[in-house]
Write a structure and sequence with these properties.
6-stranded antiparallel beta sheet; 6 strands; 10 helices; lipopolysaccharide transport protein A fold; single chain; elongated; alpha+beta
């Protein structure tokens, strides 16, 4: 029997530093969120005045779009929160007192870095799980209540991989947005050798999360010996592999992969329907969307030495200015590297992580220099 490892418990110092970070982080989260909200107020007014959308629908559409903005706000809030926390601790000589007591600067900031890393993983989960759902709901509200869409979305297709190397192709003549129902649906299942196994035809398929319910379907099964068996079912559950708005997006010529989740980008990359230049851009964005959430950790690391530096008139105003400057430089560099990664497929991964690596190296060097003071 293996010996149990001792459980790690946060010390009083850890709890104190995280407590010092909590308030400034919430302040930064609120401040940056309000900035994004202010930029969207005009968009809400335009939906109501120009597109004659109900006010409640415009507000709901805006709220469902907010999780995507949070992916940008969270790293900024960690940056500002760490800056303000370290400025206060340094300004009141608490950091000096800790170092005089034999606690290294690295040990002092360790809990802040752990929080930054944890927040990065939270942002990644938010990006991959909740943001796609919120985007779907926003698209649903816009189509149903704002644009009053009906079954006008046509020529829909979804491709799903099957166990054993086969694939399933779902084709629909239209999507009824209000009822989340596919019309004139055909499903073809192929084995690993590309031979058809099943052919399912139905007039309607309603989305019952997480699968689809086919109404009055007829299934044609092709046996290896060449025989065909037919089976009728009033209700048949089929895993199409995609949600209604994901299928609808497949019919649109979406050239901006930033509007898609990593899962949707991967599906586009595997579909074989992208041109050479689109393939490069989608690959670069796919890699970048994995690297960006970890900006929360990078910002936490680089904020520590900047927060320790004595600044005239230090406080919320100076901390906010430094945070905005760091964010601006980081995202300019990220945009440049995204462009570089879009030129060649093999450069996508290194280019996506290059800004994080660069800022991490700078943060470590500044932290090392600050620990010697």
């Amino acid at each position: 029997m293996l010996p149990r490892l001792p459980a790690w418990r946060p010390t009083i110092l850890d709890r104190y530093l995280v407590g010092e970070l909590w308030g400034p982080f919430l302040f930064g989260l609120s401040a940056f969120t309000l900035i994004f909200v202010a930029t969207q107020i005009l968009a809400i007014g335009r939906l109501v005045s120009e597109e004659h959308a109900p006010l409640w629908a415009a507000v709901e559409y805006f709220l469902w779009g907010m999780p995507a903005y949070l992916l940008l706000v969270i790293p900024m809030a960690m940056l500002l929160g760490t800056l303000l926390a370290m400025q206060r601790l340094s300004g009141e000589s608490e950091v000096t007192a800790m170092k005089a007591g034999g606690i290294s600067l690295t040990r002092v900031v360790a809990p802040l870095l752990i929080v930054g890393l944890a927040v990065s993983f939270v942002a990644l989960v938010l990006q991959e799980l909740f943001v796609p759902f919120a985007n779907d709901r926003a698209a649903y509200v816009r189509q149903q209540a704002i644009e009053h869409a009906s079954a006008g979305v046509s020529n829909l297709q979804a491709v799903t991989a099957l166990p054993g190397g086969g694939k399933q192709i779902t084709i629909a003549g239209g999507l009824d947005v209000p009822t989340q129902t596919l019309l004139d649906v055909t499903v073809v299942r192929y084995d690993a050798q590309g031979k058809p196994q099943d052919f399912i035809v139905a007039d309607r398929a309603r989305y019952d999360e997480p699968t689809w319910s086919f109404e009055s379907s007829t299934t044609y099964h092709f046996s290896p010996d060449g025989g065909v068996t037919t089976q009728f079912a009033p209700h048949l559950v089929v895993d199409v592999g995609e949600r209604p708005n994901q299928i609808a997006k497949q019919s649109l010529n979406i050239t901006n992969p930033e509007d898609l989740s990593r899962g949707e980008i991967k599906e586009r990359l595997e579909s074989g329907r992208l041109g050479p230049q689109q393939q490069k851009l989608f690959t670069a964005t796919y890699a970048a969307k994995l690297a960006r959430p970890f900006a929360a950790f990078v910002f936490t690391l680089i904020a520590v030495p900047f927060g320790l530096r004595p600044v005239r008139g230090s406080g919320t105003g100076s901390g906010f200015s430094i945070a905005v400057a760091i964010v601006f430089v980081y995202y300019v560099i990220s945009t440049v590297f995204l462009t570089v990664g879009s030129t060649t497929t093999w450069l996508a991964g290194p280019a996506a992580w290059a800004p994080n690596v660069l800022f991490t190296v700078i943060g470590l060097r500044l932290l090392r220099r600050a620990s010697r003071v």
